[in-house]
Amino acid sequence: MKKIIVAGLILSSALFGAEHVIDQKGKTFIPHAITVAVGDTLVFKNSDPFAHNAFTDNAANEFDTGMQAPGNDISIKVKAAGVFNVECAIHPNMLLTVTAK
Question: With contact defined as beta carbons under 8 Å apart, do 23 and 52 qualify?
Fold first, then answer.
């Protein structure tokens, strides 16, 4: 019985992908670089007392979270393999490099 449950958990993880939290704190993305799998989810967490934004213009993984209020989380699904940068439109020095395999 345990083997079936464990196999189901592994299969579930493979089908739905992992979740990776990217904290926005001190006007920086934490971590600054991350390696993920296609199908994984990036959760942008705003821990600062002011708004942030996360976007990429990478054609295969393009997204823009819009204005993200303090305390809010926004989830983005990684759609394709490759390396892309994520920036904050409000704080241009914020940079995250994502490597998707």
Answer: no
